C-alpha cells in the first residue's frame, strides 16, 4: 500500500495548529491541497471536501470523507473511498516539541488506482503538495497568532 509522509516544525503550540486544522470552513483561505471543506471536527463526522487530484494535474475531486480520528491538539484523520478503485486515510499528528509542534502529515493509499503509483511518482507528484500544505498551515497559524 503506497504511503505519503511528510514532517514539519511549526513554531506554535499544538492547540494553535489544531485550531486551524479543525476549522474546515476556512480551508479555502489557506489549504492548497484540500481546497474546500465543510463540516464539524467531531469523531465520525462526514466532511464535504474538494481536493486536488494529484494524479491528474489541474483536476479536482469532490468527496465526502469520514473523520476517523479527532483528538484535539493531537491528531486528525479522515478516510474516503471510491469502491475498489481508491481508498485513502489522510492524517495529521501533532507532537509538542521545544519550539512548537512537530507535524506529521500524510496519507495511506489503497485500491486499484493507488496500486499503479510508483515511489518515484509519489515523490514527484504527491509529496510536494503535502509539503506545500505544511508550509501553508504554518503560515496560517502564524497569521492568526499575529
Short description:
The chain is of the alpha+beta class and 146 residues long. The protein has three helices and seven strands, in the order βααββββββα.
Strand content: 35-45%
Percent of residues in helices comes to: 25-40%
Under CATH, the topology is which? Alpha-D-Glucose-1,6-Bisphosphate, Chain A, domain 4
Quantity of strands, as a count: 7
Cross-sheet strand order for the largest sheet: 1-7-6-5-4-3-2
Instruction: Estimate the global geometry from the Cα principal axes.
Output: globular
Uncertain runs with pLDDT below 50, 5 residues or more? none
The separation of the N and C termini measures 41 Å
Largest sheet: 7 strands, antiparallel
Domain tally: 1
CATH architecture: 2-Layer Sandwich
Give the helices and strands as they follow along the chain.
Answer: EHHEEEEEEH
Mean pLDDT: 95
Total helices: the number is 3
* Oligomeric category: single chain
Write down the Rg.
Answer: 15 Å
Describe this structure as you would to a colleague.
- A hairpin with a 7-residue loop joins β2 and β3.
- By secondary structure, this protein is an alpha+beta fold.
- It has a 7-stranded antiparallel β-sheet with strand order 1-7-6-5-4-3-2.
- The protein has one domain (3-145): START domain (Alpha-D-Glucose-1,6-Bisphosphate, Chain A, domain 4, 2-Layer Sandwich).
- The protein contains 3 helices and 7 strands, in the order βααββββββα.
- α1 packs across α3.
SSE layout and pairing:
Layout: E1 3-10, H1 14-21, H2 27-30, E2 34-38, E3 46-53, E4 59-71, E5 75-82, E6 86-97, E7 100-110, H3 119-145
Antiparallel strand pairs: 1-7, 2-3, 3-4, 4-5, 5-6, 6-7
Helix pairs in contact: 1-3
Amino acid at each position: 500500500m503506497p504511503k505519503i509522509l511528510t514532517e514539519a516544525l511549526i513554531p506554535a503550540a499544538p492547540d494553535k495548529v489544531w485550531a486551524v486544522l479543525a476549522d474546515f470552513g476556512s480551508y479555502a483561505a489557506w489549504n492548497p491541497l484540500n481546497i474546500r471543506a465543510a463540516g464539524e471536527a467531531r469523531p465520525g463526522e462526514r466532511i464535504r471536501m474538494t481536493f486536488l487530484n494529484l494524479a491528474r494535474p489541474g483536476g479536482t475531486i469532490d468527496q465526502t470523507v469520514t473523520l476517523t480520528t479527532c483528538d484535539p491538539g493531537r491528531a486528525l484523520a479522515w478516510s474516503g473511498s471510491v469502491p475498489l478503485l481508491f481508498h485513502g486515510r489522510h492524517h495529521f499528528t501533532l507532537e509538542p516539541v521545544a519550539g512548537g509542534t512537530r507535524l506529521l502529515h500524510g496519507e495511506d493509499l489503497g485500491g486499484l488506482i493507488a496500486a499503479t503509483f510508483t515511489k518515484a511518482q509519489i515523490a514527484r507528484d504527491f509529496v510536494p503538495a503535502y509539503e506545500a500544505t505544511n508550509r501553508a498551515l504554518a503560515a496560517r497559524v502564524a497569521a492568526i497568532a499575529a
